[in-house]
């Protein structure tokens, strides 16, 4: 009997989905036709599914939903009512091998604050279906191993929604007599429901073309509000570069006649790779020199490329189940990193990526939310779009590429694309291709997919001067993580090289050592002088290295290493050792760091972007990660003291780097970006020195800048101190960019990141600002996310910040669980702090867990963080 009380209340004990429970779908859906009558408050969705029994069984058809009341259910054209709702699924027994199922529901995109399924953003109707949003649109087996071809017909009011887009190619369109119009799209490529998309809105388009290597002319379109059209050129150009790059580097050609991108202001993540119709958070599309920083420009190109690359690594080959998420995400991040590296300095790109890995993934792997790259279970899959799945996943691909070498790696990706095209595959399928085409045994390498935690490698170099021999002793340990203890050693590809301490010359070639046991010793011959070892060059394995290299050895490598990443790394290690000593002991000798920074600044052979990265001190959070108990105030003071001494000792050099005379009209070239990056780092050091004229200098840059990088760099420096210019700059910035949401996000974020003592109070005040809203994820992240990342402010004595964050998360959870859950991890770091802070953080987590009716998203993050 039909049960119309379909609205499923959240279960008291959330359901855990386990990888080991995977079973192939009982029914396939080769074809889907949707007829969507769009209306912000009452959209009618009629779905026609051609379903086919898969294998011999008598399982009913199970369709996922999200509580919508089915207004009609028909089987082979006949209305039926012998369906049931069980566990949120519509269950329908079917007699034959193939049937046509029709359903009809009504949904209200205007009331969809979760931004999953069909929702409204600034008057545009759009969809977000990954991972499980399609079930919020219609009843469907909403799992990635059900692949269907889609035909979509949309009808909407022509005046409000003149543009109607969906996946694939446009087929037909027309007007109705009642002021509505319709359009039909067809996507010939079978795809899982999470890649479905449609958009309706009043949009303007920046059109371009791309001719593929086989001569297919693809019409490209970047669709935005008319007012934003002038800021779409960079994204369009990046798309064309990405299309050419994927042909050249991976042999991948685009496969439809159109490729559209739509930008919307309200979006839970960065962007989405829906087949032929990518939907983007507008922050990853819109750029002009006045409103976007160089960081924004780079991120736009990277995200446009990432989503485009998913056309093959994600869409043509998708994931069998969500435990395989890294199959598409790790590989696609690896691909977008390669693309970005090829646009400018590969070394700087690698440094940025490793900095990001250490800022986000290492802490995740060391905390309560640690999970393997291929997780074993989840409550809410939305919580697994993590740095581990994406960035550590990319490191796994990188290690396999290193082990195979470029030619065999390309042969292996060719094999993968060829063999699994049109299917839903697994991480195991990918690794098997690497093995087969690479001619290697990756049996033990697979541990990287199943074991969480960042391996730690200890390295000691033993030199026997008389024998001309040196021995490097390596040992590894994979730390315990929640639910995983006593782990096996992993396979670590470590690029190594020795340098002579006297001559500075390399002693032999670089070696690739594959450490796969708990310990190993590597012997180097013809070591004619005292050697210094350059370890894990290019960050060839995503591990922590504990080495016995002295400050002098690190300073030596910072000058002489021929691997730019290793050179940067030596400098970072030197700084880190100094800062850890200063934090623990209250003071430290800054001389070695000052000398190394001076040498780096003076080296004319280094590009400015590299120099800017190399002279930046490690982040407070990363310093904290080295300590058994984090004392945020002591870390801040130690770091500030070193910044001040660097500022004073190298004052003339910093002033030279931010000299207004160096300014030239804005150009987005690697060289100009490097100059701007160093200029802003230098400005920060001048301010850190305490120089009386620093605020004036910063304000002058703020005023004179012809681009956002310099304006925002100056603002950040001003906001880090107290001066009349600080208040003036904030005010000017706010008024100048009133109405530009993306720039206002920067205004909120910069203040929330300020190290000043009154930041917690200011942040609480900003949450009451008329421009603040929890409804827009970018705005929520700009204030709440930035505050949670501000070590000094978030952990300020009293712990009021913890309560404030928990209050914000609970308020946000009622609107948008996915975004709320993403902002929780700072509270989960309680084990790393002193008992007073730890107790307060736990108390807030416990309060969240005990709050009635919280989402399963927030529940999972908070309850796991308490364990
Ligand atoms: N696949 C997208 C990420 C993404 C995941 C979930 C979303 O739901 C709101 C949105 C986007 C990517 O990797 O870019
Ligand atoms: Zn992705």
TrEMBL record:
Catalytic class of the enzyme: hydrolase
Domain Peptidase M1 alanyl aminopeptidase C-terminal: start-end pairs: 552-867
Reaction(s) the record says it catalyses: Release of an N-terminal amino acid, Xaa-|-Yaa- from a peptide, amide or arylamide. Xaa is preferably Ala, but may be most amino acids including Pro (slow action). When a terminal hydrophobic residue is followed by a prolyl residue, the two may be released as an intact Xaa-Pro dipeptide
Domain Peptidase M1 alanyl aminopeptidase Ig-like fold, chain residue ranges per copy: 453-547
Record's protein name: Aminopeptidase N
Cofactor: Zn(2+)
GO terms classed as biological process: proteolysis
Species of provenance: Sphingomonas adhaesiva
Keyword Metal-binding: yes
Transmembrane segments: none
Keywords (A to Z) from UniProt: Aminopeptidase, Hydrolase, Metal-binding, Metalloprotease, Protease, Zinc
NCBIfam families with a match to the protein in the record: pepN_proteo (TIGR02414)
Molecular function in Gene Ontology: alanyl aminopeptidase activity; metallopeptidase activity; zinc ion binding
SUPFAM superfamilies associated with the record: Leukotriene A4 hydrolase N-terminal domain, Metalloproteases ('zincins'), catalytic domain
UniProt record similarity statement: Belongs to the peptidase M1 family.
Occurrences of domain Aminopeptidase N-like N-terminal (ranges): 104-195
Domain Peptidase M1 membrane alanine aminopeptidase as annotated: residue spans: 235-445
EC numbers, comma separated: 3.4.11.2
Pfam families: DUF3458 (PF11940), DUF3458_C (PF17432), Peptidase_M1 (PF01433), Peptidase_M1_N (PF17900)
ATP-binding in keyword set: no
InterPro entries: Aminopeptidase_N-like_N, Aminopeptidase_N-like_N_sf, PepN_Ig-like_sf, Peptidase_M1, Peptidase_M1_dom, Peptidase_M1_pepN, Peptidase_M1_pepN_C, Peptidase_M1_pepN_C_sf
């Amino acid at each position: 009997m039909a049960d119309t009380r379909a609205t499923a209340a959240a279960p008291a004990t959330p359901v855990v989905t386990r990888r080991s429970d995977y079973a192939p779908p009982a029914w396939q859906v080769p074809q889907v036709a949707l007829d969507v009558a769009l209306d912000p408050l009452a959209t009618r969705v009629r779905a026609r599914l051609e379903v086919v029994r898969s294998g011999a069984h008598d399982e009913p058809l199970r369709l996922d939903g999200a509580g919508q009341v089915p207004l009609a259910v028909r089987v082979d054209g006949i209305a039926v009512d012998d369906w049931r709702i069980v566990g949120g699924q519509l269950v329908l027994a079917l007699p034959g091998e193939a049937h046509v199922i029709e359903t009809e529901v009504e949904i209200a995109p205007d009331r969809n604050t979760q931004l999953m399924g069909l929702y409204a953003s600034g008057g545009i109707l759009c969809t977000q279906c990954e991972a499980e949003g399609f079930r919020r649109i219609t009843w469907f087996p909403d799992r990635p191993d059900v692949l269907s071809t889609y035909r979509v017909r949309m009808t909407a009011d022509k005046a409000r929604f003149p543009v109607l887009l969906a996946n694939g190619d446009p087929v037909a369109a027309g007007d109705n007599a009642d002021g509505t119009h319709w359009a039909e799209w067809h996507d010939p490529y079978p795809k899982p429901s999470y890649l479905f998309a449609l958009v309706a809105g009043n949009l303007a388009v920046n059109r371009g073309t791309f001719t593929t290597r086989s001569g297919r002319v693809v019409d490209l379109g970047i669709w935005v509000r008319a007012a934003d059209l002038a800021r779409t050129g960079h994204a369009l150009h990046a798309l064309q570069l990405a299309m050419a790059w994927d042909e050249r580097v991976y042999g991948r050609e685009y496969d439809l006649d159109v490729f559209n991108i739509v930008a919307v202001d309200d979006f839970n993540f960065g962007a989405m790779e829906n087949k032929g119709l990518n939907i983007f958070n507008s922050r990853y599309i819109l750029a002009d020199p006045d409103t976007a920083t160089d960081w924004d420009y780079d991120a736009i190109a990277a995200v446009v490329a990432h989503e485009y690359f998913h056309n093959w690594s994600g869409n043509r080959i998708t994931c069998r189940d969500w435990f395989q998420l890294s199959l598409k995400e790790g590989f696609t991040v690896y691909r977008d990193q390669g693309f970005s590296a090829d646009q400018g300095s590969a070394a700087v790109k690698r440094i940025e990526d490793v900095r990001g890995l250490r800022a986000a993934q290492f802490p995740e792997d060391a905390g309560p939310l640690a999970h393997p790259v291929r997780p074993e279970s989840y409550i809410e899959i939305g919580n697994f779009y993590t740095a581990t799945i994406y960035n550590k996943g990319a490191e796994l691909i990188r290690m396999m590429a290193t082990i195979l070498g470029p030619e065999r790696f390309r042969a292996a990706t060719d094999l993968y694309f060829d063999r699994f095209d049109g299917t839903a595959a697994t991480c195991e399928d990918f690794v098997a291709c690497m093995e087969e085409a690479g001619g290697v045994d990756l049996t033990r390498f697979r541990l990287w997919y199943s074991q969480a935690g960042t391996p730690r490698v200890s390295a000691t170099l033993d030199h026997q001067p008389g024998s001309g021999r040196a021995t490097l002793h390596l040992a590894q340990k994979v730390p315990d993580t929640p639910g995983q203890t006593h782990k096996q050693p992993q396979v670590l590809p470590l690029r190594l090289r020795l340098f002579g301490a006297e001559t500075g010359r390399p002693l032999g070639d670089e070696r690739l050592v594959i450490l796969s046991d708990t310990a190993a010793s590597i012997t180097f011959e013809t070591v004619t002088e005292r050697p210094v070892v350059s370890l894990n060059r290019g960050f060839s394995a995503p591990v922590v290295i504990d080495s016995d290299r002295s400050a002098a050895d690190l300073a030596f490598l910072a000058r002489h290493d021929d691997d730019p990443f290793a050179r940067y790394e030596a400098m970072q290690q030197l700084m880190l050792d100094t800062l850890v000593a200063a934090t623990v002991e209250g003071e430290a000798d800054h001389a070695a760091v000052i000398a190394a920074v001076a040498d780096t600044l003076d080296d004319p052979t280094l590009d400015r972007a590299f120099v800017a990265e190399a002279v930046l001190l490690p982040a407070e959070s990363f310093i904290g990660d080295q300590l058994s108990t984090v004392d945020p105030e002591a870390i801040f003071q130690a770091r500030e003291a070193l910044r001040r001494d660097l500022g004073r000792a190298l004052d003339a050099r910093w002033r030279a780097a931010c000299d207004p005379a160096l300014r030239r009209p804005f150009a987005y070239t690697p060289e100009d970006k490097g100059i701007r990056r160093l200029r802003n780092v230098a400005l920060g050091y001048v301010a850190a020195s305490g120089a009386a004229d620093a605020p004036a200098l910063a304000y002058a840059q703020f005023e004179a800048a012809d681009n956002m990088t310099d304006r925002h760099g100056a603002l950040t420096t001003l906001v880090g101190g107290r001066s009349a210019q600080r208040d003036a700059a904030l005010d000017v910035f706010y008024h100048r960019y009133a109405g530009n949401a993306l720039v206002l996000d920067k205004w909120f974020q910069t203040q929330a990141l300020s190290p000043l003592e009154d930041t917690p109070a200011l942040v609480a005040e900003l949450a009451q600002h008329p421009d603040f809203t929890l409804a827009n994820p970018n705005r929520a992240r700009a204030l709440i996310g930035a505050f949670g990342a501000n070590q000094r402010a978030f952990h300020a004595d009293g712990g009021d910040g913890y309560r404030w964050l928990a209050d914000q998360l609970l308020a946000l959870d009622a609107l948008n669980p996915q975004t709320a859950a993403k902002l929780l991890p700072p509270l989960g770091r309680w084990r790393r702090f002193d008992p007073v802070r730890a107790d307060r953080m736990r108390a807030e987590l416990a309060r969240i867990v005990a709050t009635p009716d919280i989402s399963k998203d927030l529940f999972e993050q908070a309850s796991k963080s308490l364990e």
